[in-house]
Design brief:
The complex is a heterodimer of chains A (115) and B (112). Helices cover 0% and strands 52% of the residues of chain A. Chain A has 115 residues and is mainly beta. In chain A, a hairpin with a 5-residue loop joins strand 5 and strand 6. Classes of the chains: A mainly beta (115), B mainly beta (112).
């Protein structure tokens, strides 16, 4: 069955330093993978998605993620954090087992950015 | 386009009461889903639909009913509310399997 594990529940960085949010997935098939962001008391917004094209995926607001099949990972990175990046981030997987009909969410990583 | 809309934004129920959370989208998306979000648990899929007249259960369907009579609307019914159903509920839609999901603003439900 498909699943996703976000390895850190909280990540703290200083403004201007790199961001790394870790995600490992489990899937019997070639998965589709997504990162969503949720700002406080808001809905969810898509940051980026991987659907079996280029393994390095660029998203909005300077975020990118690399699909590594050998490591079953899809970590989210950003070279330089901004105060507005403080939010909760969700890694999401979907695969052919469910006809890509179901999305399975990780438990989330809260990113804290200090001045 | 309004996107995905949900009503109400907030609701307080007493145990045993029933109610319907409304969800509508104006993007002509075939796929619609309901999730609940609880602290430390991410979003969990309750029910989903891949088209009018077609629904299926997700990860946590017990205590909830859905129907999809039109492409635009996908209401979620709580049959007999329980305190364990206190949560934030999100409706989402997407064009198809490989497309991004668009989320509504959420409904915060408290059951006392």
């Amino acid at each position: 069955a498909q699943s996703v594990t976000q390895l850190d529940s909280h990540v703290s960085v200083s403004e201007g330093t790199p961001v790394l949010l870790r995600c490992n997935y489990s899937s019997s098939y070639s998965p589709s993978l997504f990162w969503y962001v949720q700002h406080p008391n808001k809905g969810l917004q898509l940051l980026l998605k991987y659907t079996s094209a280029a393994t390095l995926v660029k998203g909005i607001n300077g975020f990118e993620a690399e699909f590594k099949k050998s490591e079953t990972s899809f970590h989210l990175t950003k070279p330089s954090a901004h105060m507005s990046d403080a939010a909760e981030y969700f890694c999401v997987v979907s695969d052919r087992e469910t006809g890509f009909q179901k999305l399975v969410f990780g438990t989330g990583t809260r990113l804290l950015v200090s001045p | 386009n309004a996107g995905v809309t949900q009503t109400p934004k907030f609701q307080v129920l007493k145990t045993g009461q029933s109610m319907t959370l409304q969800c509508a989208q104006d993007m002509n998306h075939e796929y619609m889903s309901w999730y609940r979000q609880d602290p430390g648990m991410g979003l969990r899929l309750i029910h989903y639909s891949v088209g009018a007249g077609i629904t299926d259960q997700g990860e946590v369907p017990n205590g909830y009913n859905v129907s999809r009579s039109t492409t635009e609307d996908f209401p979620l019914r709580l049959l007999s509310a329980a305190p364990s159903q206190t949560s934030v509920y999100f409706c989402a839609s997407r064009q198809g399997s490989y497309y991004e999901q668009y989320f509504g603003p959420g409904t915060r439900l408290t059951v006392t």
